[in-house]
């Protein structure tokens, strides 16, 4: 047994994995129980709805084809954005949309994406496939997309090869009620200023954003931040480009040097079994691939413990939030696709991976107040996948839909003792869990079982909860790589869950193997 609050150490021995996997011992017949307490009597921080932020980059079919097809397309659309995709995404109550990248943002010139479309320059997307970027989706179209989704705007500025003046003028163009940039905006069809909630001061400044050293990047961040000015009476939340996975030194330098100039500091961590470059298949795998990938995603727990500890040293008041604004599974590109388009199938493994991360975020919700899975449509761990006029919801989509009641709920601390799941060299907690009191007053409990072979009994005592009944949904499938296709779009879809009951002040759940469960207590 292990305590999920204890620092978790993954044993990842990539080269030995296939050999050891063959030697894995058969699963015991009886599964150990997971136990814990939901402490509704000592409620924690808010589980910010912004933890469900989505990210849409000019990358492959992430924007063009996936979201934007143009007004003249035979695919039904509103102002160029396809109605099927927007309709599905609205089910997720997308709180915030991050755009235009990613690495794309590091060399984006906002002036090329405004004005008559026919006059906009066609550029080469040098980061992603070397394909033509028509600039048909620019600032006005982004705000139209955010409007259709009902999402707040999060724009990543170009610190990579841009100037502070360009960023400042972009922000002025978007937000100013007066002046010649506001006049230009009006001439381009938008009289009223937009509301810009978040501005990212660059992206991955340690890599595609300029290959900077932390000390230099922190100074550059101070400089750019100086010129990002919100009109009187408004606020733009500034998010600095943070660390790459385990680089806590980057976090330390930024907190030391730049913390007074920022509101949030980002962290990017992708679950990449076997490390960079992504090499394992998104869809063609058995238990070894399942365990390897989930063990990589459990690293998020350790990373958040480490980065938040550094932030606590400099900011015990937790004013600066940690924005994990890129996370998710990254696999080898699907065979036959452009490797620069980052297209990957999405399976039950990704659903469980998403649930594990969303549960981990609850434990750090006092500091982690925004996260963005990468990416929303057709790229990496997407919510929906399209092909021409077809669209399918992925297993990950369904997890995000199941977690909607978590948005702005109050975290109820949950100490969980769970058995391990072990396969070959990979050992990790079998069960993950999180609980909130939703904004509707009900208690919601989210659980994952990463063991693909065994159902696991879970027994949670309820401190400070008065409940008479429990209902819920389960997401599972007939194989570790079960997935949805255009021909079979509901192969992995939520179903009513009858495996939970309340008894003598306890919540008793039988977690099916390889599943995500969301429960509502009445
Ligand atoms: O999400 C794909 C890429 O991953 C982003 O463009 C970049 O920020 C990260 O390296």
TrEMBL record:
InterPro entries noted in UniProt: Alpha-L-AF_C (IPR010720), ASD1_cat (IPR055235), GH (IPR017853), Glyco_hydro_b (IPR013780)
Reactions the enzyme catalyzes: Hydrolysis of terminal non-reducing alpha-L-arabinofuranoside residues in alpha-L-arabinosides
A Pfam match: ASD1_dom
Keywords: Carbohydrate metabolism, Glycosidase, Hydrolase, Signal
Signal peptide (from-to): 1-31
Segments forming domain Alpha-L-arabinofuranosidase C-terminal: 325-515
The keyword Signal appears for this protein: yes
Entry-linked Gene3D superfamilies: Glycosidases (3.20.20.80), Golgi alpha-mannosidase II (2.60.40.1180)
Coiled coil: none
EC numbers, comma separated: 3.2.1.55
Similarity field: Belongs to the glycosyl hydrolase 51 family.
Subunit structure: Homohexamer; trimer of dimers.
Name recorded for this polypeptide: non-reducing end alpha-L-arabinofuranosidase
Provenance organism: Alteraurantiacibacter lauratis
């Amino acid at each position: 047994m292990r305590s999920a609050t204890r620092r978790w150490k993954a044993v990842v021995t990539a080269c030995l994995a296939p050999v050891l996997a063959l030697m894995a011992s058969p699963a015991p017949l009886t599964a150990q129980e997971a136990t814990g307490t939901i402490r509704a009597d000592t409620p924690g921080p808010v589980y910010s709805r912004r933890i469900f932020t989505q990210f849409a980059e000019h990358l492959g079919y992430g924007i063009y084809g996936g979201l934007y097809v143009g007004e003249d397309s035979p695919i039904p659309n509103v102002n160029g954005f396809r109605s099927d995709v927007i309709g599905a995404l609205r089910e997720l109550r997308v709180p915030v949309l991050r755009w235009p990248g990613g690495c794309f943002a590091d060399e984006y010139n906002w002036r090329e994406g405004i004005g008559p479309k026919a006059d906009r320059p066609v550029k080469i997307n040098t980061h992603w496939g070397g394909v033509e970027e028509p600039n048909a989706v620019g600032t006005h179209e982004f705000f139209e997309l955010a409007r259709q989704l009902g999402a707040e705007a999060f724009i990543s500025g170009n610190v990579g090869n841009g100037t502070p003046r360009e960023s400042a003028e972009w922000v002025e163009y978007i937000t100013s009620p007066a002046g010649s940039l506001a006049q230009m905006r009006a001439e381009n069809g938008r009289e009223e200023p937009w509301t810009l909630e978040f501005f990212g001061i660059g992206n991955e400044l340690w890599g595609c954003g300029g290959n900077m050293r932390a000390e230099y990047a922190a100074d550059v961040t101070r400089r750019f931040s100086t010129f990002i000015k919100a009109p009187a009476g408004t606020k733009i939340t500034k998010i600095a480009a943070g660390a790459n996975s385990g680089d806590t030194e980057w976090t330390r330098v930024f907190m030391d040097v730049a913390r007074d100039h920022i509101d949030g500091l980002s962290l990017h961590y992708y679950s990449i079994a076997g490390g960079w470059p992504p090499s394992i298949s998104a869809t063609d795998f058995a238990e070894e691939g399942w365990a390897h990938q989930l063990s990589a995603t459990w690293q998020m727990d350790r990373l958040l413990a480490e980065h938040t500890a550094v932030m606590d040293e400099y900011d015990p008041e937790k004013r600066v939030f940690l924005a994990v604004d890129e996370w998710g599974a990254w696999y080898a590109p699907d065979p036959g696709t452009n490797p620069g388009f980052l297209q990957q199938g999405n399976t039950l493994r990704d659903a469980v991976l998403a649930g594990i991360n969303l549960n981990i975020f609850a434990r750090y919700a006092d500091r982690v107040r925004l996260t963005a899975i990468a990416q929303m449509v057709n790229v990496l761990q997407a919510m929906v996948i399209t092909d021409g006029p077809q669209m399918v919801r992925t297993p990950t989509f369904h997890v995000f839909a199941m977690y909607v009641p978590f948005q702005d709920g109050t975290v109820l601390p949950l100490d969980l003792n769970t058995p391990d799941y072990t396969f070959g060299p990979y050992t990790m907690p079998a069960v993950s869990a999180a609980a909130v009191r939703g904004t509707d007053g009900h208690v919601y409990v989210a659980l994952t079982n990463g063991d693909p072979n065994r159902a696991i009994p879970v027994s949670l005592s309820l401190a400070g909860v008065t409940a008479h009944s429990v209902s819920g949904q389960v997401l599972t499938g007939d194989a570790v790589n079960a997935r949805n296709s255009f021909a079979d779009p509901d192969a992995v879809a939520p179903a009513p869950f009858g495996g939970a009951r309340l008894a003598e002040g306890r919540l008793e759940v039988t977690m099916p193997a390889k599943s995500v469960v969301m429960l509502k207590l009445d």
